[in-house]
Amino acid sequence: MNYFKIFMNEKEKFPGVSITISTYNQTKQIEEIVQKTLDQDYPKNKIEVIVIDDGSPDNTMEILKKFGKKIRVIQTYRKGRVQALNKAIKEAKFDFVCLSAGDIFFEKDFLKTIMSYFKSEKIAFVSPFSETGGNATVHRKKALIEAGLFDLNYNEPDPKSETETGWRDDTDLAFKEWDLGYKSIFTYAVAKFKHEHQAPANFKGKIKYVWGRIKNHRFDVLLYKKHPERAKEFLHISFGFWINPMRDFETATGLWRKRNPKMTQHFGLSSPTGAKLIEAKTPIHVLAIILGGIAYALTLKVYRLYASFKYGKFLI
To answer: N or C, which end of the chain is more exposed by having fewer CB within 10 Å?
Structure first.
């Protein structure tokens, strides 16, 4: 019996994966998040867990210390998710890197399932989140390095905000990997995880949250400037500068889910990450959702116009 061949087959079956978890002020769930990551049905010597705490002022570090040497912890201090992830990718010891966050709960067979899709060295990433990556996406480290990692221009951290430390950075990275000739796989068949993004409970917090989401869309303009052809299709740009406001309305009200029959339908003022702000409980709530969606779409037009001057590319 050729034991060497069997050993090599097992090695290829379970390639090493470094799992990065970026977090900020998520003490309510970070311990469970890390534990579920460690409990993956995958060879323990083929998993490395790296937690990136971006300067949480709460007791996040005290919780992470409970895991001892089972995990690696990288501390940054409000430098932004993008910069923190680049640091973690560079220090990752395995050939594959799973980019995750402090609100992603993995099921036990998540990693084994998603890694089964890497059947060619031309596959840069496999994502159950979106066609351009995002949370819970596994990347080939070689492709990440060749693409130059995340572009720090998408970072622009704000010490007072938890929502604008990176946006469209995943899309920009995917475009760069595709430009290098790499392929990717996006399929809900491997979506063996839960994304439990917490929305603010009070009205003031919700307004602040929505404003942060609106400001993030300044990066639409940067993406369009860097990748005009790919962004034109991705953002559904017409006439060289116009994004269909209905797309923005659908994003704000949950109607975007109707484009994928495998997704649970939900009408309500919310974010694509799952944070629910207003649910359609009564006719008054429905009216508020419609008006909120219209206001959101119109405000995005104004903010993209502002970003057009900032980045030197016209888009509204």
So the answer is: N
Give 226-277 pLDDT, tens digit per residue: 999 999 999 999 999 999 999 999 988 987 776 665 566 678 888 776 678 8
Sheet holding 17-23, edge to edge: 72-75, 47-53, 17-23, 96-101, 137-140, 123-127, 183-186
How far apart, in whole angstroms, are the C-alpha atoms of residue 84 and residue 88? 6
Residue (of 75, 71, 29) closest to 52 by Cα position: 75
The answer to whether 78 touches 1, Cβ cutoff 8 Å, is no
User: Which residue(s) pair with 48 in the sheet?
Assistant: 18
Instruction: Note the helical H segments in 141-202.
Output: 141-146, 169-179
CA dist., res. 86 & res. 149, Å (int): 6
pTM over 0.85: yes
Phi-psi region of 101 (alpha: psi -120 to 50; beta: other; left: phi over 0): beta
> What six digits make up the tokens of 52?
């990136």
